[in-house]
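Summary for the steering committee. One of the milestones for this cycle was to obtain a three-dimensional model of the protein with FE2/S2 (inorganic) cluster bound, which we needed before selecting residues for the alanine scan. The sequence and ligand used are listed below.
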Amino acid sequence: MLQTFASSISSLLDARALGHSLPAGLYTREDVFEADLDVFFRRHWICIGLECDVPEAGDATVIDIGKTSLILLRDDDGQIRVVHNVCRHRGSRLLDAGKTIVSKLVCPYHTWTYELTGELSHAPHMGKGFDKECRSLKPVTLKSIGGLIYICLSEHPPEDIGHLEHVMAERLAPYDVRNAKVAYETDVIEHGNWKLTIENNRECYHCSANHPELCVSFVDLDFGFDPETLSPDDRAQAEEHFELYAKRTEQWENDGYPSAAVEQLVFCSTNFRTQRLIISGAGESQTPDATAASAKLLGSITRKDLGDTHLWGHNSWKHFMGDHAVVSTIIPLSADTTLVRTKWLVHKDAVEGVDYDLEKLTSVWVATTDQDAELVARNHAGVEDPAYIPGPYSPFTETNLDKFATWYIDRMRAHGY
Ligand code: FES
Ligand SMILES: [Fe+2]
């Protein structure tokens, strides 16, 4: 009888050819999915939300990652905390999925009660000698970087988050994301592996054919092009754009806004890239006509021409503009489904209908996110087809995908695969 053995994860990693997309099994197999969750969502820093998700004391929100459930909350002293959503009695979940307001965390099972600091304050019928002090909710290691909440579930969080923190604390300060308002939020489930979601986000090769709304304000050339492919006119335009880019970067930097590209994408634990990009057209914001959607600008910003500070991580992408920010985080749900959670941020005092029009604020990234979900689903379906063979990345427009795939293999190896 013919017997087939599934190849090991290690041999799938070996099979990856440089400059090419990953072997199918790395996108589709259940055992790889479980390994990915462990390596990339437990042992690396991930972005799970924002301080302004929980603006008031007692605000809480539950974030589920695989079998791990976390509570992001603001305690009575205004401090942000992340604790495990697991009662220290017999393990019951404390809160259900979604957002809530709490004065204490009360377990629905036997009413053990925790303060918002995580300390156990009430545990009836446990006897005189019962020590409440060692039964606090398990805290999660967290860092707020300019109001963006990063956590790591490992006991040994990678130290190179320090570079991201150093670079972004200064860049994000003027936007005061900490005190922004979440004006709108969407959850989109993409029918594709999380790595296809990230690959799709790291190239704009697909933009001109698929994102008419985004292309009004976004310059796809910024993420690479082959000069030989361009017509003489387009080439002249591209050269003009890069001259302008150099000039604008210098101006922004002289005005005190760090702007040049900084990246840490390979041979590192914490994967990120940031750069202040030019917004084309009216030059202000990622809206249908590239003008600002909110009259009240973010934080302490007084000008609309600060471009788009983009920031990638391995589970998030973000765009910070003068008038608003768009923050997307992803959580893998299964080998072939990925949650994409997107939030639109405005100044905390900006009022819908007065300072901003919600449709204008959200329409570009709502359309883009839906278009991307469609693209990722098509990509995943093709990768699942036995006819799929890993294909070559463009050396001009997809170099960042090659770096991502290389980083992925390297991190899997570093964790014993
Ligand atoms: S499991 Fe929570 S109080 Fe018993
Ligand atoms: Fe896209």
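Key point for the committee: The longest helix spans residues 358-384.
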